[in-house]
Design brief:
The chain is α/β, with parallel strands linked by helices. Helices cover about 40% and strands about 20% of the residues. A seven-stranded mixed sheet has the order 3-2-1-4-5-7-6, with helices on both faces. Strand 2 (about 30-40), helix 2 and strand 3 (about 70-75) form a beta-alpha-beta unit. Helix 1 (about 15-30) packs across helix 5 (about 170-180). The longest helix is centred in the N-terminal third of the chain and has 18 residues, at about 50-65. The structure holds zinc ion (ZN). The site of zinc ion has 7 residues, from loops.
């Protein structure tokens, strides 16, 4: 039976960096993949303007269409300042989308990323997904986001994968979809580069006996 999947990301491009190749495979297999991007993703940078926010949303739409996703939605929480709004507001936004889509599976950020928006996105998704909510997903997983997850202090609690997905067949499509985010991608050896994406997939592959893998940490799975 086909499933409904929701990726909740803080910024445009996180959805692909974190779960892109897996989501592309799920979409190809007939699942319905939706993306919710909570933040504006641009205004904290020097010289940025509202037009940059719209350009990034256009990039996200182009990326979603390249990836075969069913929809992409946007909220407008302030870039790199999710801690300036009440967590309840972010949680309510997530709850609204859970109620609308009733996803079977939700993917979101790891709770110990360096980026504050990522950490609060995790908190909001976890709160919205508490089992007493009738629209809570049966499965909640976190992903790693290059240039945030690995940049956290190594003394901090680390992303610890429990699930590896074989993405040998969709890694190229992920990198192609990331091409829509020209303004966000960087030149190697920045980790948020095409090479960085490939190297991480190979490294997660080494851990799991696969040519290329995306790794996830299972937060909760409820089987009925
Ligand atoms: Zn981000």
């Amino acid at each position: 039976m086909s499933k409904t999947i929701l990726i909740v990301a803080a910024h445009p491009d996180d959805e692909l960096l974190g779960a892109g190749a897996t989501a592309i495979a799920r979409a190809k297999a007939g699942d319905s993949v939706h993306v919710l991007i909570l933040g504006q993703g641009a205004l904290s940078r020097e010289g940025s303007a509202q037009s940059d926010v719209h350009a990034l949303q256009d990039s996200a739409k182009a990326a979603a269409s390249s990836a075969g996703f069913a929809s992409v939605s946007f909220a407008t929480f302030p870039d790199n300042a999710f801690d300036s709004v009440p967590l309840l507001d972010i949680t309510k936004e997530v709850e609204k989308h859970l109620a609308k889509l009733k996803p079977d599976v939700v993917y979101t950020h790891h709770e110990h990323d360096l980026n504050v928006d990522h950490r609060l996105t995790f908190q909001a998704v976890l709160t919205a997904s508490r089992p007493c909510n009738e629209n809570a997903p049966a499965e909640l997983l976190t992903f790693e986001t290059l240039s945030s997850t690995e940049w956290q202090s190594k003394d901090h609690k680390q992303f610890a994968p429990t699930i590896y997905v074989d993405v040998a067949k969709t890694l190229d499509a992920k990198i192609e979809a990331l091409g829509a985010y020209e303004s966000e991608m960087r030149a190697y050896p920045h980790s948020r580069s095409n090479e960085g994406v490939r190297i991480l997939a190979q490294y997660r592959g080494l851990e799991s006996g696969l040519e290329a893998a995306e790794a996830f940490q299972l937060v909760r799975k409820i089987e009925k």
